[in-house]
From TrEMBL:
It holds the Pfam family RVT_2. This is Uncharacterized protein LOC109114747. Residues 11-110 form the Reverse transcriptase Ty1/copia-type domain.
């Protein structure tokens, strides 16, 4: 959790502030995951702070969503090409992936059950 908070702060993702009158904050939650080694033993613990975006209403709270993703079939094709071409392949584990984009409106997220919020 400390790594996640530190990374978010280093990337200047938010500003801690009081929620403005008439604004609605999206709630947040922590999501935890175990990263396992090939033999099944625990390699490390991961934690992500995520917004509960499913509480928003399309057309009211937001209008467009888009996030570029790599589909499983694309990944398999690239790996197959690597094997066929005898490329040297290296695994990569991204510590923190942040989507960058310009937002037209300010988004408020509740960090805790207290009155502090982030934008």
């Amino acid at each position: 959790m400390e790594v996640e908070i530190t990374t978010l702060e280093q990337n200047d993702i938010w500003t801690i502030m009081d929620l403005l009158p008439g604004k609605k904050a999206i709630r947040s939650k922590w999501v935890y995951k175990l990263k396992l080694r090939a033999n099944g033993t625990i390699n490390r613990y991961k934690a992500r702070l995520v917004a509960k975006g499913y509480t928003q209403v399309e057309g009211h709270d937001y209008h467009d969503t888009y996030a570029p993703i790599a589909k499983q079939v694309t990944l398999r094709c690239i790996l197959a090409l690597g094997v066929i071409k005898c490329w040297e392949l290296h695994p990569l584990d991204v510590t923190n992936a942040i989507l960058h984009g310009d937002l037209a409106n300010k988004i408020y997220m509740n960090l805790s059950s207290k009155d502090s919020h982030a934008r």
